[in-house]
Amino acid sequence: MSNNEFTFECPDLTEGATFPLRYTGRGEDFSPEFILHNVAVNAQTIAITLDDIKHPIFKTFNHWLIWNLPVQDRIPEHIPAGKILPELGNAKQGVAYGRHHYAGPKPPRGKQHAYRFTIYILDCELELKPSARKKDFLKESEPHLLQKSELTGLFE
């Protein structure tokens, strides 16, 4: 890994570890804090998705979609619900399992699923409506993607 590669950490979750209860649908269901490293100097916005990547029916099931976050080194935990978030530079939350809000892991009891956070660094603000879904976000963001990094955790 080069020293200039974009990475992020979640202070309470390491790669492959179990999600802390507070960030799940069986706990407080708060979005976690993220600390970003080596964000591109020409970055304009940040987006985050959370996906269940071991869903038995859907190969990948999107739990959370937020975009147009201002560029920053630290994204606070417990991002509130809402289509547009004035307190976060008018970031927008789209339609996912959490409709316009974070919805943490909550698989059927006794079934372990893997959940992946992906943080995207973009060179612009996206002109998507809050009714956008992940597929809309991916299509719109692809030509503007500067950097991307992932973190996967488990929950049962």
Automatic annotation (TrEMBL):
SUPFAM superfamilies per the UniProt record, alphabetical: PEBP-like
NCBIfam families, per the entry: YbhB/YbcL family Raf kinase inhibitor-like protein
The protein's name in its UniProt record: YbhB/YbcL family Raf kinase inhibitor-like protein
Lineage: Bacteria, Bacillati, Bacillota, Bacilli, Lactobacillales
